[in-house]
Amino acid sequence: MSKALYRRLTVFDIVCLVIFFALVIITLFPLFFMLITSFKTPEEINQVPITLYPHEVYMGNYSKIFHDEYFLRYFLNSVIASVIITVVSVIGSALAGYVFAKFKFPLKSVFFYAILATIMVPFESFIVPLYNFVRSVGGVNTYFGLVFPSIISSFGIFFMKQNMEQIPDALVEAAKIDGAGNWHILRTIIMPLSGSSLSVLSILLFITAWSDYLWPLVIATSKDMFVLEIGLTLLQDEYFIDYGQMMAGCAVALIPAMILFIFFRRYIMEGIAMSGIKG
Amino acid sequence: MAQRTKLLKMNKQEKVDFGFCMVILIPIMLLFAIIRFIPIIETFVVSFFQKSMIRPGQKFNGIENYIYVLTDPEFLKALQNTFLITVFAMTLSVLGGLFLASVVNSGRRGMKFWQAILFIPVIVSLVPSTLMWKMLFDYNIGVVNQILNVFGVASINWINNGNLVVVPIIVVSVWKEMGYNMMIFYVGLKAISRELYESAALDGVNHWQRLRYITLPQLKPVTLFICVMAMIKFVKVFTQAITMTSGSQSSGNIFKTLVYYIYQQGFSLHSMGRASAAAMILLLIVFVLTAIQMRLDKED
Amino acid sequence: MKKFLGFVLVLALAVTTVFAGGSKEESSEDGITLTLWGSSQTMVDFYEETVIPAFIEKYPEVKDIEVLYMPIEDFVKRLAVVLPAGEVPDIMEIEDSWATPYVTAGYFEENTPELNAILDQMIPSLKECLTWDGKQWGVPVAPFHELFFWNVDMLQEAGYTEIPDTWDEVVEAAIKMTQRDETGKITRSGFSMRLGGNPSGTAQKFWVLGLLPNGVNWYEESATEPGKYHAGFDNEGGYNALKTYIDLLYKYKVDDFASMKDTEAFANGRTAINMREASSATSIVEQGPDINWVASPMPKGPVERATFLISLNLYVPKDGQHKDYARKFIEFATSPEMYALQTAERYGFNPYVGADRTAGLDERLVPAFTDPEDLVYHSVPVHSAYDTAMIRIGEALPDIFADRTLLDNPEGIKAAVHRLAEIFNDAYKEFDEYAE
């Protein structure tokens, strides 16, 4: 078997593989570098030439982070906010995606393009009116205020629409002839067939929520409500960027997304083959 | 009137469907109205006013904000910078994603593992990623320069040179986006019928011909989708640029992008009218570019 | 699929549980809790460890003071959104130049006579930069002045036994202390120059190192219309200021755009001289414990020996809830006793006239806190346009510094200075504060 494979390798294949693994290395190196930096002493970080592995494993960066009594709180807040945002907006995207993909109704495209256009406006430009609204309903310094502006995702709706359009209309029609209601079809046909794209979307929306910065910054008025992404910038003081500590913080911040990714990976790999873009 | 007759003409099933759509869409559109449409419309209105972010009061001044922004050399510079990043980052991340997807799709052993690895940058937050790359590109302690030195090239001051800093910014952007594009291309490749390749193999076509006449045409819709999404993302590039070039450690100017310009007009210079006008110009640009891409898609 | 839905459900349940737990904390409490927003890490530590415990001891009805720290960039971002909406702390600590837009827009309470009585005992220039429209806003809690940090080992290596005291001597020493590798790349700068990054910071350094020693300031009051201003540096002083920078970069080559900068460079032994405020010494001590350093006052420039005195001040926002206690806290935190503690703990500058500024101070900083007779303190003016002008100038400066052709090019330098003056005037015109 392996012999047969080996024989089929052409020059073209080899070139491709070389480039491929070069890209893998480029992808991995910063991550690797981040990890080793977090174990280096401050002196070693600034050392020239740069060391490729920590000469003494230094846990100080991690202990300094966890020494901050609030760090776990930031972490927890990030998890809470990201999970709420992900769960709610994935459900919303799935429902709206189904409607846009499988139904015809007046003004459909107007609705759809209006939703799509909101991705194109930078958040910075409408944060003030948005803040004023959330404040007027008592959202300052609450989890509600933290998650509210991200509770629905236009990207998610677009994504689910594209994926659900791939599901053959015949399946839906057949069910309708059998007298199945729309909710029933959604539950028994559409959702099972979209499991994979829902997984992908969950990951993407979780990452987006996790890395949100500006909104959590303005909406929190006490440390209790800070999220991790803000906690990381608090590690910088006015005169100095402590790279070791910062990278340790990054490494810790990676954990939930990694867990989620590993958890969903099977669904993504399987599912992505079934989903796909209109074409 | 036409709408109404249409509604009246619906049969029972259509009425049920319509009700179903509205039950789902109305709450969603209401939410959208609150968190997006109304704030954005407010921004649009403010763009015609002379309005400070922190002072009460406003004065209608027509299109003056637009004239100011469009004739501001800083805005034109931001436009140019953003264009540069978008073109390169988009091209490289789309080509890179396509390449990776096709290698992963070749069915060689272990490819699923490498695919997972290549997806990791997508899940790393942007600020930490940028700081990592900033460190790698650092003039004094950066690995990139040390590698260059090994090949006998003198160290290059990537970060603090207004003309070169675009390179690390593009690198971070591509690094972050490539895995994502790979995933979508992978889907697209999987969808191409095996029979097409098999019959081509019988005709004895080589790699290039296969790519040119089968893979690429089949992938066109996917490619366009990725290009649109990537473009929207890169036109709004901000975090990479600011993280890369701000801070007391930096020399040289902050690498201004359109969103940075908007942010600065609003948050630092407190001119909400100009910030809003710039945001609307950005919206227009992205909208037109998206429409062009969609149009190109339809023409084929 | 069922597994997936089950997972989502479990997550949602877990979330609601934590949710409920999280919001419970907002229970009613006896006693007052004040809130303070600060933008300086070292001051926040000082409040939390020293000021607040002592304050609560004195006023037991105050249960706690919650301090929220944020780096200045984020702090300002936040203020712009949050303050206009009326979401304010009880006490706010912010640097005077950042506060000016908010002071002039009416977000803070005017000082009470009690607070002004404190101001009157301090160095007069501090009061000036808190005065707008004839009234005072804010009380200085952490004034800082610019000074020079010297690496003593490098100085001795270059043959110096005393710290150079005039600008020409500083340049000479900087040239001697600059080190390069065989390719000509600077491995150790003689003098760490601020060449970019945050625009306001770039402009501020140019002000104190370029303009002020050459006897000019950014602004000049109009002779015909008092209360209006125009650029005060489109002249020989401004020319000399820019020439100083260009010469340091391209003639004497004591620093360049690539080298490590500022406190980080100093703490790593990568620069011989750094110009920064005294509290940056906390970082030097922490990050570069082996560095043998000493601080000095600003050197005597061609025209005058100048430094700035800028301050972080405490303000009472108009929408604050406990204004009385906020004022009591301000009085307490700015008392001579607290200043004495600050000097010892974070190298703070004691602004009280006649106070012993060096009592308890790290001895390496003592020379810098002992004013030479000819030292002039400058402060940031309270003009609405100043902040905007500084940001725009700070953005234009890096490109000018990077322009190698300005070396030995008097016309080029003059044109560049003139361009800066135009930027300055345009900003003032926009705020209607400009007059010939």
Describe the structure.
The complex is a heterotrimer of chains A (279), B (300) and C (436). With 279 residues, chain A is mainly α. Chain A has two domains: 58 residues; 214 residues, MetI-like fold. Chain A is built from 15 helices and no strands. The radius of gyration of chain A is 24 Å and the shape is globular. The N terminus and C terminus of chain A are likely disordered. Chain B is mostly helical. Chain B has two domains: 49 residues, no CATH class; 236 residues, Orthogonal Bundle (MetI-like fold). Chain B has a two-stranded antiparallel ribbon with strand order 1-2. In chain B, strand 1 and strand 2 form a beta hairpin. About 2% of the residues of chain C have low confidence. The longest helix of chain C is centred in the N-terminal third of the chain and has 23 residues. In chain C, the strands form four sheets. In chain C, strands 1, 2, 3, 6, 11, 12, 13 and 14 form an eight-stranded mixed β-sheet that branches. Chain C is α+β, with helices and mostly antiparallel strands and 436 residues long. Chain C starts with a helix and ends in a 6-residue tail after the last helix. Chain C is globular and about 70 Å long. At the A-B interface, helix 2, helix 5, helix 6, helix 7 and helix 9 of A face helix 1, helix 2, helix 4, helix 5 and helix 6 of B.
Topology:
The complex is a heterotrimer of chains A (279), B (300) and C (436).
Chain A: H1 2-8, H2 11-38, H3 42-45, H4 60-67, H5 71-102, H6 108-117, H7 123-136, H8 143-147, H9 154-164, H10 169-177, H11 182-193, H12 195-210, H13 214-219, H14 228-234, H15 243-274
Chain B: H1 2-9, H2 12-46, E1 49-51, E2 58-60, H3 64-71, H4 73-104, H5 111-123, H6 126-136, H7 143-150, H8 166-191, H9 194-202, H10 207-235, H11 239-245, H12 258-268, H13 272-299
Antiparallel strand pairs in B: 1-2
Helix pairs in contact in B: 2-13, 3-13, 4-5, 4-8, 4-10, 4-12, 5-8, 6-8, 6-11, 8-10, 10-13, 12-13
Chain C: H1 2-24, E1 32-38, H2 41-58, E2 62-69, H3 72-82, E3 91-95, H4 96-104, H5 113-120, H6 124-128, E4 131-132, E5 135-136, E6 139-151, H7 152-157, H8 167-177, E7 179-180, E8 186-188, H9 199-211, E9 219-221, E10 229-231, H10 236-251, H11 262-267, E11 273-277, H12 281-287, E12 293-296, E13 305-315, H13 323-333, H14 336-346, E14 375-378, H15 386-401, H16 410-430
Parallel strand pairs in C: 1-2, 1-3, 13-14
Antiparallel strand pairs in C: 3-13, 4-5, 6-11, 6-12, 6-13, 7-8, 9-10
